[in-house]
Amino acid sequence: MVVLLTALVLGSLYLIFGRGKHASSEIVQNLILNENAQRIVDHLAFDIREANVVEPGSPPFISSIESLKIETNPASLTSLILKKAVYDLTSKAPEKCTFKKVQYIIEKTDPRPGASVQSYSLDRVEGDLDKDGKEIPWDRKRKTLVEKIEEMVFFRIKPDSQEEKISGAGTIYFKIKMARSDAGKKEQGYKNEVISAIRIRGSVPEGI
Fold it and tell me: pLDDT of 86-123, one tens digit each?
């Protein structure tokens, strides 16, 4: 009888601590997922707000109706290309600056084992521009920001009027969706979806 009670107590403790450990692991994974999404937003916010010019067609314009149901298209991935002036605050000449090109590239990656959806990575590429506005190829720096992204798309809203064309062309929209896929489970776990818009600085200095 004592042996039976001991076995029952030990079994209960095993279940309690086992479930607690699993719950703690899920919380940690959810935090990592949130941090990855926030890392993307932070980088985009900084670069877009510092940008002077958006490369034509990158990202593309779509209608406001299309934006309500936009999804990542594996056959036609969008990108974001920005140009910005970086002023030399140590120079006595206040107008002295260099020009940089920043590009965000979405790429398909190998899906996780058992995953039913395509996954993507987001790379950030930065390089200096010469005096003619052309990128210096040997100065390019590329870094993968986040992997295992379920949805990532850049777009701009197509203006309906000339006034909107002037005011809205510099507003960049983006959609990010990340989800946790648990091993052995068909349904997805915790999800984090972000849809936001940020406007570029807009003033265009000479030489960019």
Answer: 877 776 655 667 889 999 999 998 766 556 678 899 99
- Structural domain for 40, as ranges: 2-199
**Amino acid letter at 9?**
V
Q: Residue 40, class by beta-carbon neighbours within 10 Å (0-12 exposed, 13-18 middle, 19+ buried)? A: buried
Buried b (16+ CB within 10 A) or exposed e, 78-96: bbbbbbbbeeeeeeeeeee
Q: How would residue 13 be classed by pLDDT, with cut points 50, 70 and 90?
A: very low
Rounded to whole angstroms, how far apart are CA atoms 30 and 174? Answer: 21
37 lies in a domain?
A: yes
Would residue 207 count as lying in a domain? no
103: buried, middle or exposed (CB in 10 Å: 19+, 13-18, 0-12)? buried
Helix, coil or strand: residue 32: helix
Query: Does the residue 204 lie in any domain?
Result: no
Is there a cis peptide before residue 59, judged by omega within 30 degrees of 0?
A: yes
Residues whose CB falls within 8 Å of the CB of residue 163, separated by 6 or more in sequence, listed in order: none
CB 152 within 8 A of CB 121: no
